[in-house]
UniProtKB/TrEMBL annotation:
Belongs to the lysine N(6)-hydroxylase/L-ornithine N(5)-oxygenase family. Pathway: Siderophore biosynthesis. It holds the Pfam family Lys_Orn_oxgnase. Its cofactor is FAD. This is L-ornithine N(5)-oxygenase. SUPFAM superfamilies: FAD/NAD(P)-binding domain (SSF51905).
């Protein structure tokens, strides 16, 4: 989950398995696989949503979407929230003491990359509905 690969402890035994890879290497690593038949996508953010839909659209692949979350939460792209991406606000967040910085990051967690946009959520919902 997130921009940097992180393998949870429960999956430590799979860390060096070439079939397990982070979304940041998705297309490159998928191309190295023998024609995959079944794939699990783990996550509930923008990348996981996009990868799930890409795989769902490929012939002969069964794809599962696994997440800790009960439901997808749409990204917040409102003007006030998007201020976190302004250079001066980035400096403000970075220069805060660790505890305050963590609180700010938690406050803005629903921006951009940690949550998919509503259109993707609706597409995934349609896929699940059709599967039923």
């Amino acid at each position: 989950m997130g921009g940097a690969p992180n393998v949870p402890e429960c999956f430590a035994g799979l860390k060096d398995d070439p079939r397990v890879f982070h979304s940041s290497h998705y297309l490159r690593e998928l191309a190295k696989q023998d024609v995959p038949k079944r794939i699990a996508v783990i996550g509930a953010g923008q990348s996981a949503a996009e990868i799930f839909l890409d795989l769902h659209g490929r012939e002969g692949i069964q794809v599962e979407l696994i997440s800790r979350a009960w439901a997808f939460k749409p990204s917040d792209d409102s003007p006030f929230v998007n201020e976190i991406f302004n250079p001066e606000y980035t400096d403000y967040v970075f220069n805060n003491p660790t505890g305050q910085r963590e609180a700010l990051l938690q406050e803005y967690k629903s921006t951009n990359y940690s949550a998919p946009d509503l259109a993707l959520i609706q597409e995934i919902y349609d896929v699940f509905y059709q599967q039923k």
